[in-house]
Amino acid sequence: MATPRAPPQAAVPGGGAGAAAGGVTMRMFHGDVFLGEAEVFPMKQGAEGSLPFPSNEIRISHLSPTSERCPPLAILQTIAPFSVRCKLQAKLMPPHPSLHRLYLTCFNEYKSAVVVVGDEELHLVAMPSKVEKVPCFWCCSVRSGIYAASVGMLNLRCLAIVFDLDETLIVANTMKSFEDRIEMLSRRMDIEDDPVRIAGMSAEIKRYIEDRELLKEFIDTDTVTDNGRIVGTQKEEVLPISGGQERVLRPVIRLPERNAILTRINPEVRDTSVFVKLRPAWEDLRSYLTAKGRKRFEVYVCTMAERDYALEMWRLLDPEANLISSHNLAERVVCVKSGSKKCLQNVFKDKGCHPKMAMVIDDRLQVWDEKDQPRVHVVPAYTPYYAPQAEMANAVPVLCVARNVACNVRGGFFREFDENLLRKVFELMYENELLDLPYAPDVGDYLVCEDTNFAPNNKDVAPIPEGMSGAEVGKRLNGLAYPRDQKQIPSSTRLSDDDGVALRGIPGGTNIQSNGGSLATTPSLFVTVLQEIGRLCESRVEFRSTVSSGKNMQFSVEVLFSNEKIGIGIGKTRDEAQVLAAEKALQNLESNYLSFMAPVAGVLNKDVNKPPGSGNGFLEDITLSEDISMEEPSGSTLKEQDHSKALDRLSSVISLIRELVRDAAAALIFHFSVLINCLEDQHVVFRDQVRDSGSALNGEYHFQAELGGQILGRGIGLNKDFAKLQAAEEALKTLKTTTDPQIKKHLRPMQQLNFPLYPTQRHRETV
Questions:
Q1: Ranges for the FCP1 homology domain (predicted)?
Q2: What is the DSSP code (8-state) at residue 67?
Q3: Are both 22-155 and 156-168+278-414 of the same fold?
Q4: Considering only CA atoms, which of 52, 53, 37, 132 is closest in space to residue 90?
Q5: Around 163, how many Cα atoms within 13 Å sit in the side-chain half-sphere?
Q6: Which residue from 341, 303, 323 is spatially nearest to 163, judged by alpha carbons?
Q7: Nearest to 732 by CA among 671, 650, 687
Q8: CA nearest 380: which of 404, 402, 359?
């Protein structure tokens, strides 16, 4: 519990500097018990300064719950900033004994005296004073019920998190939706003339057909044949929600290797069977939310799906009801009419949380009310059929990033709460003014609001939505044919100005930083090189960022290589700090971290206790403000760097790293710079091709190398540099073997191109 304040010492005529002149005498009651008279002073002059008490009497109905560590004024300032309506103090000296006892109880036990007026609560907060022995209060107004819910959450250092379901956590299909998607893709293939796109659509159709056949087998026989193994159903009991319902047993088949579940919404109707794909890393995110036996977040669901479907999808995600108890399920799973806006005020209609203390995980931003959008962490839509490799190809899965973002939000919120708001509240006296109240944290302060919806141009074709959503669910489960009500794809989308760490396997357009930051669009070369060194050496590279509390708001980013700090950068933005940290880390690697590098033979130094790929993308817990334990995700993105300028700056770093060319990481840098330079000397031009719908969604980049209008090579990568490198390698092979006179006539002498694709130590001296 926080250190108690000293109680007040004496009266202040006129209510202090913060109150308007001219008090009004009112009688005070606790229930029907008379407490004495008080003088009430409005905080503002004129009509705005009208007093909130009806009938000119103050009738207290109850005392608020005891707060263990947070004084009532800190709670009220968090959930209803600057809501002080008036001040009041005992009129007579000495004060009435009952009023004095009430004051001491509230002051010492961190309680407030509550006056209920309609749907509003007026909280009388006991305040210390600069003079002697006077019970004096500030009166704050707040929506009824919200204070009681917030006391527990703030004392436990707990926030709320709201999940969307479809294409955020799951993708679900019925037989009808499978057939519709297969038909839609087949029609697209008929009019498509690009062989690459045709091949992609064909593979997508094959994946749909494979899962459709499993669902059909489940419908017909209550079994599925998975890789030659027959798997039967298990009867899973559906816990009754509040209000009561009959005991329900659903036939369910769980296929953990496929990250899939087959279930039946109505156990008596086989046509309500659904094939559900769970987003990878959900278990990691779920375990974090309730780790160490205590809740870090109160969990809610807000979806546009039909209610029975939504409840079953959530049951599959939280089968043991650890995140939402069966008692709270009816209130915490909120279904919104398709086409309407989602709103946190409606999610918390039971007054379980204040919107300022809630964050949202959703794949779409625009479905949320505008005032709630700053509190939405937007994730890329889950597309297991269109891009099955996208999730696990990332260095950190999407839901692990969401988990790191949640850590960052919770850490930032309560750091501000403890270090700023609480500290200043303890310094406030009855005589202070309204504007002396400190700023209250808001979850939206710690989120970068971005919409990752695919924004097609005139040549791109958007991927079809993969699961059911909104009103479609009820129609399909009732066996009715229903035209696909597609999720609206905006014609233009605001993309982040920030850069991210775009490595092989991390989409550039929907790229996730390995340290859990935001979505990004363009890679930083320094960070890319550093991450590639870590990948080739099978050592994890982490970026950890903090914000100083000073006025300059400097950002500091540390680089950890296999848990060893190898560089630090400080800048005015996280972007700048991360670039500087990565550059410094590259410079330090040569002299201080050779033990992490692989020898030329390709044998990597490994920690036998840490098998490759064992990292889960999460950072270790740190301790903040007493017992707050959370992971500090390093997380921010980089602003777009001018590429040529970045290459110039990198040259000094490359000169150091070339000494390490005997290891694979340095060979990559060497190969990239020399190969590109040699080809450009041959007048080879690299063009960034227009990306198709698939590459746009997956963040792929397409480059082609041309000479005299002839295409020498193409490259596709999840990073511009690696796509360009792939095109360069193919072009080099073409130049060495071509007999085409149209290409040869443009060539300069070829001796400078006679180097191996991946140089060994034998070539080190000649470079």
A1: 154-402
A2: P
A3: no
A4: 37
A5: 30
A6: 303
A7: 671
A8: 402
pLDDT of 295-316, one tens digit each?
899 999 999 999 999 999 999 9
Residues 6+ apart with CB under 8 A from 673: 647, 654
The closest alpha carbon to 207, from 499, 508, 466, 475, belongs to 466
Distance from C-alpha of 216 to C-alpha of 287, rounded to nearest angstrom: 33
Cβ contact 692:716 at 8 Å: no
Q: Is 362 or 708 the better-scoring residue by pLDDT? A: 362
Instruction: Identify whether the C-beta of residue 583 lies closer than 8 Å to the C-beta of residue 526.
Output: yes
What kind and span of H or E run contains 35? strand 33-42
| Top CATH class, 22-155 | mainly beta
> To 10 degrees, the CA torsion angle through 48, 52, 55, 58?
-140
Secondary structure E strands in 355-425: 358-362, 376-378
The answer to whether residues 728 and 711 touch, using CB atoms and an 8 Å cutoff, is: no
Closest C-alpha to 497, from 307, 602, 342, 637: 637
Domain ranges of the chain: 22-155, 156-168+278-414, 169-229+257-275, 535-593, 700-737
Topology of domain 535-593 in CATH is Double Stranded RNA Binding Domain (3.30.160)
Burial (0-12, 13-18, 19+ Cβ within 10 Å), 700: buried
Most confident of 119-123, 348-352, 549-553, 657-661: 119-123
pLDDT in tens, 460-506: 444 566 666 555 565 555 554 334 333 333 333 232 333 222 222 32
DSSP string, 222-253: SEEEETTEEEE-EEEEEPPPTT----EEEEEE
The span from the CA of 512 to the CA of 519, in Å, is 5
Q: Confirm if 495 and 359 have CB atoms less than 8 A apart.
A: no
Q: Which fold has domain 156-168+278-414?
A: Rossmann fold (3.40.50)
Contact 125/140 with Cβ under 8 angstroms? yes
As given in the structure block, the two tokens for residue 9 are 């010492």
Q: Quick check: 39 and 18 in contact, CB under 8 A?
A: no
